[in-house]
Design goal:
The protein is mostly helical. It is built from eleven helices and two strands, in the order αααααααββαααα.
Length: about 260
């Protein structure tokens, strides 16, 4: 427990100031987190980090976090934006299947491409939320954190019916519902004091959807770990596991918030 507390304090001491500062600080943070998170998926697959496909995935995830506005300032003979860069990385993955002499196949390329998009787009949307405003960023973060804490507390007290026993045996329907209700209540209070893009009632509805999306993000990463038979995605955060373990809900919640028009 002592190690968990110390790790949490140190992590927050780094994370919070960079998030508050915004700009290139949060962009650098997102890029670093994307690099580590993608490397965790690579290592879960028992692939060397120096494998060319793994390098493409990790670099691609970092590139995916960078805003389009940056590429518009780069003077090149071709128009660069994230969608074209994504295709370049996918194309390189596919070419690698040809020259790797069956050591890297189409299935490997698919896994690494999905990892690159899953991680890179998730952290990119975190940066975009901060660009919209710090209260917008904390709106999503608050929902994710309150849902997670509420689900844990309610699940311990009232949990009887398993939510997804095959991948996450400790999660229950009671905990999930309790976490969502608590998140919606907190979001309603938050939006009253810090108005967002839409009116109060619509933002509360969005909070409800984001709470569910965050829990799905948690289950998605649980399914990934269960498939690769690992307890944690990594050990970079002593007592807390890896970066994916800490940001799994956010990697789904922020893109969903974008799709809902939150920013």
């Amino acid at each position: 427990m002592k190690i968990r507390v110390i790790t949490a304090i140190v992590a927050l001491a780094i994370f919070v100031p960079m998030v508050v500062a915004g700009g290139w600080w949060i962009q650098a943070l997102a890029a670093a987190l994307a690099l580590v998170a993608t490397s965790e998926i690579v290592l879960m697959r028992r692939t060397l980090l120096i494998d060319f496909g793994a390098i493409l995935a990790m670099v691609g995830a970092v590139v995916m976090t960078i805003p389009d506005a940056f590429w518009q300032t780069v003077n090149t003979p071709v128009v660069l934006h994230r969608s074209s860069l994504l295709y370049i990385f996918v194309l390189l993955m596919l070419v690698h299947t040809v020259v790797a002499k069956n050591k890297f196949n189409f299935e490997d390329a698919g896994v690494f491409t999905l990892a690159m998009m899953y991680v890179g787009i998730g952290f990119h949307m975190l940066v975009q939320a901060r660009a919209e405003g710090i209260t917008t960023l904390f709106f999503v973060l608050l929902i994710v954190w309150v849902t997670d804490s509420g689900a844990y507390m309610v699940g311990r007290k009232l949990g009887k019916h398993k939510l997804a026993a095959h991948i996450s045996p400790n999660k229950t329907w009671e905990g999930s519902i309790g976490g969502t209700l608590l998140a919606v209540l907190v979001a309603a209070i938050y939006v009253y004091f810090f108005p967002q893009r839409y009116n109060w009632s619509l933002m509360v509805l969005i909070a409800f959807i984001l709470s569910i999306a965050g829990q799905l993000g948690d289950l998605i990463e649980s399914a990934l770990k269960r498939f690769y038979k690992v307890k944690d995605s990594g050990d970079i955060l002593p007592g807390h596991g890896g970066i994916l373990d800490r940001f799994d809900s956010m990697l789904i919640a922020f893109p969903v918030f974008y799709l809902l028009g939150g920013f």
